[in-house]
Amino acid sequence: xxxxxxxxxxxxxxxxxxxxxxxxxxxxxxxxxxxxxxxxxxxxxxxxxxxxxxxxxxxxxxxxxxxxxxxxxxxxxxxxxxxxxxxxxxxxxxxxxxxxxxxxxxxxxxxxxxxxxxxxxxxxxxxxxxxxxxxxxxxxxxxxxxxxxxxxxxxxxxxxxxxxxxxxxxxxxxxxxxxxxxxxxxxxxxxxxxxxxxxxxxxxxxxxxxxxxxxxxxxxxxxxxxxxxxxxxxx
Length: 235
What we know:
The chain has helices at 15-18, 25-30, 72-78, 135-149, 153-167, and strands spanning 3-13, 45-49, 58-62, 80-88, 105-107, 110-117, 172-178, 183-187, 193-197, 200-204, 215-216, 221-226, 229-234. By secondary structure, the chain is of the alpha+beta class. The strands form 2 sheets. A 7-stranded antiparallel beta sheet has the order 3-2-4-1-10-9-11. Strands 5-6-7-8-12-13 form a 6-stranded antiparallel beta sheet, covered by helices on one side. Helix 4 packs across helix 5 (153-167). The chain starts with a strand and ends with a strand. 50% of the residues are buried. GO terms for molecular function: hydrolase activity, acting on carbon-nitrogen (but not peptide) bonds, in linear amides.
């Protein structure tokens, strides 16, 4: 359920995650190749990027299929940053289809996307509230509340996922988050891939193209990427 991707490195356009690759997020919205749950991701999409003129990321979200937004191709070509995040949504059954339920969720400089599902009661105790009733919004709120207390992206994701996984053993908790200078991601019940480039790194639910170099990240892992490199550790 859902697909997401992020870039960290030299500035590049959002189109490099969405339209330009053969299997980018646009293609994954209607024909994902590695998705284990659901068949299409037509319940909304979102993207975010960091601009030097702003302390907080710029965000664009719609509650329509990605292919239905005629303005997106031009926007994705001119939106450039050294840290990008995009997502397409397949809503959990019973969850609302609305922009506030669509990733990326934001708080201050942090952005977050969730690929999976979780019982809301498994994370409600970790957050004071969420911008939407959907499970992903409650997960994001829990992570953001933890970050406001101790701003370590990897630790916040690992702590919330461990708590949610204990409360809901059937949960799928692939989180992808960034702060403009680093990326953190969890692999818990679905796929995640990593591709190192000379000028940066891509982290995505599934490969964006068929070029060599994509590495599957093991399940129950935490991935951390920054200017110092990439590290994958068991959770």
